[in-house]
Amino acid sequence: MNEEHKFETLKIDWPTLKDDEGNVLREGTVDGNYAVISINRPDRLNALTEQVVGEISKALRLMELDGSVRAVVIRGVKEFTKKPAFSAGADLAAAFNPHLKPNIPMHMALAMRIRHRDYDEFEQFSKPLIAAVDGFALGGGCEIVLCCDIVIASDRSAFGLPEINRGIFPANGGVTRMAARIGINRALRMAYFGEAFDAKTMEDWGLVTWMAPAGDEFEKLVHEKAKWLGEAPTTALFVIKKCVKFGTRYTELGCMMEQLGFGVNQASHDAMEGILAFNRKVKCPECGGKGKFEDGSTCPKCGGSRKIKDTPHFKGI
Predict the structure, then answer these.
(1) What does DSSP say about strands 210-212 and 150-154: parallel, antiparallel, or unpaired?
(2) 299 in the same domain as 270
(3) Residue 298: pLDDT band by 50, 70, 90 thresholds?
(4) Which residues make beta-bridge pairs with 38?
(5) What's the distance, Cα to Cα, between the start and end of the chain in Å?
(6) pTM for the complete prediction?
(7) What is d(CA 265, CA 270) in angstroms, rounded to the nearest whole number?
């Protein structure tokens, strides 16, 4: 990986990249068509600085144009030194932008405008984005989770917007996005009182998609869902994401997006492959296309017909 692709505050795991002839251009560390962005500040509970947020944006821009990456997982590093954390929020001890003065309201509005550019980029990333939360997801960390499409949490995770306890509020889009995800009353409770809630509560409230025990079961679930999305029809996922995340804000616009998106998707290889595979038959792998086993029993997979419907082989964009 060349110098411009190095990151100081992140650990990146890439899938293998091959050219059209099958030659390996990049040896991957991920078993699947997805990448993993790990916030790598365990001594600070993966607290966020301008550099961290900016590097996540940079990594996503690289992955958006990388055909081998068809889904992305954002998480905290697995190896923690204090407590497990996705991100405990903004690092309030970090140096502030020297060009902006905290006592000038216009400067602070500009600071938040700059930060919103990054968070908006997370939310608008064109491929499936999974938040893998193991531990604290607080403040700005929770706001990153809100920008993701799928949230997988371990049973030792906690979600919260504690900014009110410091006389501030979650302005990285947190108030607005939380209300859209779990409802106005619950979002107001979280923002007003700074309470943190466990993964089970957030699953019941609709933010967490899946929950699993911390450790191997959690890691297995994250890999399983990311690998599935990495092998799914990428163009269709892109259209679904845009319709759900943005079309639902205005129902009529959402329906128009579905119409346009259907046209875009139908021209993709994956759409044609899915339909062709539905009508395509292949030799049953269970019985080797014989319909029966040596003991004379009928193959349960093909029911004795010797062939089964083919599985579609999606290529992505």
Answers:
(1) parallel
(2) yes
(3) very high
(4) 11, 75
(5) 23
(6) 0.87
(7) 8
Q: Is residue 223 classed as helix, strand or coil in its secondary structure?
A: helix
- Residue 30 is given by DSSP the state B
Under DSSP, the state recorded for 310 is P
- Residue 293: give the domain boundaries: 234-309
- Residue 315 inside a domain? The answer is no
pLDDT, one tens digit per residue, over 301-316 is 999 999 998 889 898 8
Q: Which residues are catalytic?
A: 143, 163
Q: Are the C-beta atoms of 234 and 316 separated by less than 8 Å? A: yes
| Same structural domain, 226 and 238 | no
Q: How crowded is residue 250: how many other Cβ atoms within 10 Å of its Cβ?
A: 11
Q: How many CB atoms lie within 10 A of CB 313?
A: 12
Phi then psi for residue 293, to 5 deg, are -100, 175
Q: Is residue 47 part of a domain?
A: yes
Domain for residue 170, yes or no? Answer: yes
Strands 196-198 and 158-160: antiparallel
147 & 194 share domain = yes
SS3 call for 94? coil
pLDDT (tens digit per residue) in 196-214: 999 999 999 999 999 999 9
Band the pLDDT of 1: cuts 50, 70, 90: very low
User: What's the pLDDT tens digit per position in 19-62?
Assistant: 888 889 899 999 999 999 999 999 999 999 999 999 999 999 99
Residue 297 is given by DSSP the state P
Residues 123 and 9 in one domain: yes
Q: pLDDT tens-digit profile of 115-126?
A: 889 999 999 999
Handedness of CA 40, 44, 48, 51 (dihedral sign): negative
Q: Which of 72, 256, 84, 255 is nearest to 149 (CA)?
A: 72
